[in-house]
Amino acid sequence: MTLRLAEEHAVVVRVAMDPGRTLECPRCQAACSRYDVRERRWRHLDTMQYRTLLVAEVPRVRCDEHGVVQIAVPWADPGSRFTALFEALVIDWLKEARFTAVARRLSLSWDQVAGIQERAVRRGLIRREKQTPRRIGVDETSFRKHYEYITLVNDLERDRVLWVGDDRRKATLSAFYAELGEQGCAQLESVAMDMWNPYIWATRENVPDADNRIVFDKFHIAQHLGRAVDEVRRAENRELVAQGDHRLKNTKYMWLTNPDKISADRWQGFAPLRDSRLRVARAWAIKESAMMLWNYARRGWAERAWAQWYKWAIRSRLEPIKRVARMIRDCWAGVMNAASRDVTNARSEGMNSKIQWIKRMACGYRNRERFHNAIYFHLGGLDLYPISLKSAHTKV
Ligand SMILES: [Zn+2]
């Protein structure tokens, strides 16, 4: 092994192979004869301040079954131009820092960083055992300019993303169920989702006894009601401002925030508005009361409470609220499933904020594939490190 400082201020490490070593096919491990030898180079961890390259003459062998193939080297995964230790370093940095920062600090191009992330995810997915989730959550998130969507399937028990698919159509979720297989679908105890018809149709078609397993969770119902309250507020604010009344200006978040998360002072200050006869105050009261109708020990109790709520909401004369009320009526069984058993919703919310973080970290993905990869990378709970990482420490 020789160390040499080359022209471009890189340390070049030449690795020579033991000439007496028997060569084997990397795919079937059969002993093979040498076909030819080619020089290959890999970027390795820096030596002091210098970029470091590993250079070796690597034989190709002729395997009866697999043709001419390059033998495996113990320091790098097949096809990679980086050593396993270098890839592991990039993976560790990617967990902490923005894509562009990783590229800049390690003198890599964006594509190189993306390639390392992509390989890491591919390895992780191959290594992952067959998944047999019992409780899943289906979520959508927007991609790029908010008019394209992707669908995420989360394992709610293990709090990780199981599957990512393009779009939010029936075919999208059906593709997940197809991968899960008939047996996997039969093992699902609950599927928490938004009241979104394509997801409902896909689940009815693939999951046995779907109507007893579909759960329209609190998180999604809170989202719909929050949007309805905001719609009422905006319309009312416009009318008030036209009359010179600015009471509702800058109050958006007070109406949308969970009261538990508002400080006592601000809650006090909010009292005149929420106790007022404004339409938004009425919409808010209906939303907040819906937030109490969960965790019933008995389904009958949940049914009675929600039936009361529905009557109130549908007579509210607030069109956005009535719209959500009708949506709940049409998805009645799934809402009752959610309200009367302990299906966790907090996780869904946590996952959502992590997805937002991933979007920020990447400052826009050039394509869906990379966004998928980033989600699996950060939230898939995968084993991402190179296969050859362990053997990288062995003597060459
Ligand atoms: Zn072979």
What does this structure look like?
There is one protein chain. The chain is of the alpha/beta class and 396 residues long. 47% of the residues lie in helices and 20% in strands. Strands 1, 2, 3, 4, 5 and 6 form a six-stranded mixed beta sheet that branches. The longest helix has 25 residues, at 218-242. Mean pLDDT is 90; it is low at 392-396. The structure holds zinc ion (ZN). Zinc ion binds next to loops.
Task: Give a quick precis of the structure.
This protein has 396 residues and is an alpha/beta fold. It has 15 helices and 11 strands.
List the helices and strands and how they pair.
Elements: E1 2-5, E2 10-15, E3 23-24, E4 31-47, E5 50-63, E6 67-70, H1 84-96, H2 99-105, H3 110-127, E7 135-143, E8 148-155, E9 160-166, H4 170-186, E10 190-193, H5 197-206, H6 210-213, E11 214-216, H7 218-242, H8 252-256, H9 264-274, H10 279-290, H11 299-314, H12 319-330, H13 332-339, H14 346-362, H15 368-379
Parallel strand pairs: 2-5, 7-10, 10-11
Antiparallel strand pairs: 1-2, 3-4, 4-5, 5-6, 7-8, 8-9
Bound molecules: zinc ion.
